[in-house]
Amino acid sequence: MSIFSGLEQIVETHYQLARRTWYGLGGPADYFIRPKTIEQLREIVDRCNENGIRIYVMGFGSNLLIGDDGLRGAVIKLEAEQFAQIKYEDQEVTAWAGAELSKLVLTCVEKGLSGIEALTGIPGSVGGAVKMNAGGNFGDFGSAVETVTLMDSGGVVFEKSKPELEFDYRKTNITAKFVLNARLKLNTADPEQIMRTVKEIWIYKKNNQPLNTKNSGCIFKNPPGASAGALIDRAGLKGLKIGGAIVSDKHANFIIAEKSCRSRDVMRLIEAIKQRVKEQFDTELELEIEIWD
Length: 293
Ligand SMILES: Cc1cc2nc3c(=O)[nH]c(=O)nc-3n(C[C@H](O)[C@H](O)[C@H](O)COP(=O)(O)OP(=O)(O)OC[C@H]3O[C@@H](n4cnc5c(N)ncnc54)[C@H](O)[C@@H]3O)c2cc1C
Fold this sequence. Notes:
Layout: E1 11-16, E2 28-33, H1 38-50, E3 55-58, E4 64-66, E5 71-77, E6 86-89, E7 92-96, H2 101-110, E8 113-114, H3 126-132, E9 135-136, E10 139-140, E11 145-151, E12 157-161, E13 167-168, E14 171-172, E15 178-185, E16 187-188, H4 191-208, H5 228-234, E17 241-242, E18 245-247, E19 255-257, H6 263-281, E20 290-292
Parallel strand pairs: 2-5, 3-5, 4-20
Antiparallel strand pairs: 1-2, 6-7, 7-15, 8-16, 9-10, 11-12, 11-15, 13-14, 17-18, 18-19
Bound molecules: flavin-adenine dinucleotide (FAD).
Residues 22, 57-64, 78, 97, 122-125, 127-129, 131-132, 134-136, 178-179, 215-217, 290 line the site of flavin-adenine dinucleotide.
């Protein structure tokens, strides 16, 4: 009997992950699974555990570089209706992991709810925004999150709230396998004023980031007290190209994937940048993107 018998409707095999990453890169996963309910998710987790199948949890793939040979295991994506709900109750918003972050931000603006407009222009899902504590110069997602509902690798669902729940620069103390939803506490404000902030952030991003290219946002975290992009720029690496991967001229912390690009080109370019920055500034750059290889 097959490992996922009875669940064929939500399980695809040998699934090309390039279709699901912002980079448009990445080989096949053994299994690509989109459960429709929490019960189905639990069943999938059980079957993976029983059969020793490694689980990867994928959001919108905007912070991922997946290897050309793909992944031996199951990639689970929470995108079905149940996992993409957003509920508004006064200043409290419950957003499920599969909801689109940009849609959440805009709806909050329209409703005059302030607190996450700083996330303007950041692609991805709510689950990814929680796990990465997405944000930047203007603020981060964690500041608005009060409670998260999680599922651990044994299928147990539980909640974690502040102050036990902590957010830091591009990380959280969540160790559970799945973020199911996040409860946000927002403030009421004038929608027009929030929209002005949104527009300012958009203009800033348009002027400073290579929009309309295939990329994965910032490749490296900023080292304490420094800017990774500025170090890469000062090392003279803008425009450096390996295969189909090239360091953006507009923002040196972005690597653009051109048409012929393979994941291995991006990985080699990452190593070349790290080495040059280490040599010139004695600084070890740490990855902000995740590499699944
Ligand atoms: C053009 C561009 C601009 C960007 N700008 C910014 C920026 O300004 N600031 C910033 O912080 N990021 C930025 N990013 C990176 C990225 O958008 C964020 O990290 C985003 O939060 C990732 O969300 P995702 O749904 O795509 O997650 P994915 O990339 O799919 O996954 C990222 C991580 O989250 C985990 N994850 C996703 N969903 C779940 C879940 N439900 N449960 C448990 N774990 C989960 C994954 O396992 C993985 O570890 C940018 C990316 C691009 C392409």
